Input
Amino acid sequence: MRAVIVYESMFGNTRRIAEAIADGLSQSAVVRTVRVIDADPNVFEDIDLVVVGGPTHAWSMSRPSTRRGAPLHVSDPKSGLVLEHGADSGPGVREWLASIDQVRAKAAAFDTRISSPVLFTGRASKSISRQLSRHGLSVVAPPKSFLVDKKSHLLPGELERARAWGAGLATQVGRLGTLSA
Output
């Protein structure tokens, strides 16, 4: 199986989650991780599974206006946050999904969000999953959230949860491939 993970990350949390998912998937698949600002139409060539993720901003996927606010969070040296290259100026998952054509592959979506009830935070993964379906991808797992604290730092255990989710995706896609063959 061949998989690609396309992600958007502001402070490195979503990137680290994408890498952990890739680690879990790599037990059963050849996996590439690609920043959304580097994703081109060729990202789908010979791919069985596409996993897409991004941070939750204003209850959904980031927008240019919410990305422009990211540098404010790193301006405080006590924050411990570092802005990922191009995070505040490049296209995000929302724009990338709007630009892709119909794709025939399996898919899954994830996000990072503050550890609070979904009613208060929203979930980017739900919108990402819906957009993946609209572009012809077969979503094989419910949207998944990985949690950060109110200061935008990953909570303990989230990388392990991401690895386990990636391994579970590999198993599930493997079973689906067998069933449809």
Q: What stands out?
A: The first helix runs from residue 13 to 25. The mean pLDDT is 93. The chain is about 40% helix and 20% strand.
